[in-house]
């Protein structure tokens, strides 16, 4: 890690937690706390849980705090606690290009641009392309999980095996179809795409969407 204390046998995460503990255990009404990406050095759920609890602790003690994070879930704190405000760094998207405006504006965001930054840093094209494919699959999985949780919260029982439920749900099928079409579009090589092939592809996608609606 970037901040390992090898001589002390401490990982980057341990160093981060030690510093955070020092902050939380020495708060006063005059404190100004600046935290950057708390919880990033461990598993997603552990990191998110710690970051959430730290933010709540600081809010409870009414400490002035700047809390930078990529855990989008934390933006929900602004709806639960008075005095908590969300801000994000403004960007503009132009087609496949992104312009970072280096300007702080009010409001939260659900967008991340890690893959784009990796591209700017010179990560090989095949790695970027593969990461985009994996991201789409993870987003689809997340969409399906949210749909299943929604069905559970409304009292609809799920079958023993999730795989048997998915094809029977038209909303889930629609999400899957749109994700499949999106992935096909991303993988098209426009340099070798003839007008006839393009028309055939569009017709194929329309048929897929039509079938998904009728499911």
Structural class: alpha+beta
Average pLDDT level: 81
Radius of gyration over all CA atoms, rounded: 23 Å
Number of strands: 4
Mind describing the biggest β-sheet? 2 strands, parallel
Taking pLDDT < 50 over at least 5 consecutive residues as the criterion, the unreliable ranges are 158-168
The figure for the number of domains is 2
> What is the string of SSEs from the N terminus onward?
HEHEHEEHHHHH
- Helix count, per DSSP? 8
Q: Roughly what fraction of the amino acids lie in strands?
A: 5-15%
- Rough outline: elongated
CATH C-level class of the largest domain is: Alpha Beta
* N-to-C span: 49 Å
Reported CATH architecture of the largest domain = 3-Layer(aba) Sandwich
The portion of residues assigned to helices is 40-55%
CATH topology-level name of the largest domain: Rossmann fold
CATH superfamily of the largest domain: P-loop containing nucleotide triphosphate hydrolases
Spatial order of strands in the largest sheet: 1-2
Can you describe what's shown?
This protein has 215 residues and is an alpha+beta fold. The protein has 2 domains: 6-111, 3-Layer(aba) Sandwich (Rossmann fold); 118-214, no CATH class. Helices cover 52% and strands 13% of the residues. The strands form 2 sheets. It has a two-stranded parallel ribbon with strand order 1-2. A two-stranded antiparallel ribbon has the order 3-4. Helix 5 runs antiparallel to helix 7. It starts with 11 loop residues before the first helix and ends with a helix. 4% of the residues are buried. The model is unreliable at 158-168 (pLDDT under 50).
């Amino acid at each position: 890690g970037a901040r390992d204390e090898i001589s002390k046998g401490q990982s980057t995460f341990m160093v981060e937690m030690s510093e955070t503990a020092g902050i939380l255990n020495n708060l006063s009404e005059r404190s100004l706390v600046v935290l950057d990406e708390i919880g990033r050095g461990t598993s997603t759920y552990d990191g998110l849980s710690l970051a959430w609890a730290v933010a709540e602790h600081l809010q409870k003690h009414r400490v002035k705090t700047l809390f930078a994070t990529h855990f989008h879930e934390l933006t929900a704190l602004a709806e639960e606690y008075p005095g908590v405000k969300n801000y994000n760094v403004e960007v503009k998207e132009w087609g496949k290009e992104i312009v970072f405006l280096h300007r702080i504006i009010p409001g939260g965001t659900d967008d991340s641009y890690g893959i784009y930054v990796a591209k700017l840093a010179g990560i090989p094209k095949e790695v970027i392309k593969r990461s985009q494919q994996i991201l789409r699959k993870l987003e689809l999985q997340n969409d399906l999980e949210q749909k299943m949780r929604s069905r559970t919260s409304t009292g609809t029982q799920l079958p023993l095996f999730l795989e048997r439920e998915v094809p029977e749900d038209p909303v889930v099928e629609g999400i899957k179809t749109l994700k499949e079409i999106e992935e096909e579009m991303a993988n098209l090589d426009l340099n070798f795409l003839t007008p006839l092939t393009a028309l055939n592809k569009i017709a194929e996608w329309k048929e897929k969407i039509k079938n998904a609606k009728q499911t």
